């Protein structure tokens, strides 16, 4: 898809296809579970539910641990095995001529281009049929085991894997050409092992002699549930000792299952093969984090782009405006396969290898799971599983449907180089844009990562959201909460310092998710983000990104701005944005201003929407963000929500706000808004004096204007034992009396309809009167339920 067509599609958000609902049965109902340390406690069920166990092969087939690293491009030792994790959704093969992707085949993320040129035939390959997930090598007293796990394995006859062994770790001996028609080379091959669902064969690369492993006393396990191929080879067939250099690649099997089939490069038109390139590997593993950095400049096309970038950066205009960033659309390693693609195109794959010390395996040595600092990508097992493989049809912007369909889902993380285990750091979300992916900021905005993550000493993370266009609804939102749980289990996080940010669609998420859960966030940074699910020129003049009720009717953030009373917002915008009109963004800032809520609005003279994303000039916005601290127990707040966005099956929806929880609306139709206005005099807030400034001219990092509203805090009123609640369309809610510091006193509830108020954490023996009538004394559980009538209800606790 050409850049012009991409822009045209993005500009036409108002007429995109309708959103489909999540498929029935995608996720089971989320059970309540403990929240890991480092997370706020009031998170939805998607964050409370532990990740499911990934299916693993039997102990008979694989008599070793399954403790593979959760960081891609890393390995470890455990229990007699060497365990390696590869990158997900990276089986795109060699790059085209000149290092460019020349295939016309559609991609799952139109603005996150891949480097590799290979595609898959229609059918059971599911557009991901040769994707190595994990690789394991183990040894017992009589056998060696070689294991390949696949990301996608709808049909075991699709993939083929080849192991090559330099048994003396000497490139001067052995052969260089990989057997079985793999079409690549690496010096020093003394033996090769070819594995498909049809069998396993040891091949002498010098003589071509094939030995059937199964006929020689070995075994092959093809586990469709675990998506594993495991070969056990007797020591009599393959003696092991010393240190070997091992390599592993994968592709598509031919009809016999013994050789590699030619890759498909172009399926446009007739679907016939457009090129029969020599390199037949789609994926080669043992590529490290360092070999697949987020910005890759070593390949031929990448080197040209890097040279152009340097030339632009050397000019006054280029360095000031960040024009050099445009080159990162080429050097950006969006799928962590750039080095793979260029290396495969050259044919010599010797740079990707793993050293196996057989004595370490015999001694059952163990090394800890790697946890690199800086930029890396990780994976987790989602409780959602929309399908198999990935969808690569073009133009998915408006349907919200997942495109990466497996339960294995990737995300990126930046860990400051100063991080030490156990030292709690802030978490900063930086969510991706429409049609990009989880590596957007590593690929396009390395300076932003340094400013937002390294300099602020904050761990940063970007979710995939099951694809490029979820707008952080449905599965995309579930993914966000599940990844948060994964991060809290992997790193020491400070829940008082969580910030949410993102560009474009990710900026929309900074409104949507923080307004839905304001008590979970300390601050928000919106980078060229729309204020609606789609395009808004001005309040009332807008077009949704999809015609679904979720987006079209419940995709407005303006009615929820009051929710952000305790979250300072920084909003960064470019004047020239054609996809997120500046007029709508200014109207949003004015809504903050009218409510006396804190905000910083920067409007810069940067490029258009797509160019501004690459210019990487957000320094003033990051400085304004600072390191805010989350408010945990305010006395006054407003909380409004769209009840139709609650989903038990996906584990998402409104959970409450501060000391109010257990929310249920009377009406949940699309377009309905439920609301709570709470004022608790037992938690008196300090007086707020609004201080406005601007618009003032700024010159760095780009010329523009700055407007803001900040707070100066005054004295706190004396605490009093009374609370008022005003409810609209609220059927049920719970007040935590201990958190509200109102275990005795008066609660006045004004509601537009009948409902139920549950008051928890009361002292046993507390007497309760409702509208002058004694209800009962609170029992040991500390909970009382009060029926609310329409109008005013007065509850007295004493």
Helix tally equals 15
How confident is the prediction overall: mean pLDDT? 91
For the biggest sheet, the summary is: 10 strands, mixed
Strand content: 25-35%
Using the alpha-carbon principal axes, give the shape: globular
SS-based class? alpha+beta
Total beta strand runs: 39
User: Uncertain spans, ≥5 residues at pLDDT below 50?
Assistant: 1-31, 268-274
Helix content: 10-25%
Taking the alpha carbons of the first and last residues, their distance comes to 69 Å
Q: How do the strands line up in the largest sheet?
A: 16-17-19-18-20-21-24-25-31-30
Rg for CA atoms: 29 Å
What is the secondary structure topology, with strand pairs?
Blueprint: H1 3-11, H2 45-48, E1 74-78, E2 81-85, E3 132-139, E4 143-150, E5 159-166, E6 175-177, E7 185-189, E8 191-196, E9 199-203, E10 210-212, E11 219-223, E12 228-234, E13 243-252, E14 283-284, H3 300-313, H4 316-321, H5 328-331, H6 338-346, E15 354-357, H7 358-362, E16 374-381, E17 408-415, E18 427-431, H8 440-444, H9 446-454, E19 459-463, H10 474-490, E20 499-503, H11 505-516, E21 523-527, E22 534-538, E23 541-544, H12 549-552, E24 569-574, H13 582-594, E25 599-604, H14 609-615, H15 619-625, E26 636-641, E27 656-657, E28 660-665, E29 674-680, E30 686-698, E31 704-716, E32 722-728, E33 730-736, E34 745-751, E35 755-760, E36 767-770, E37 773-777, E38 784-788, E39 791-797
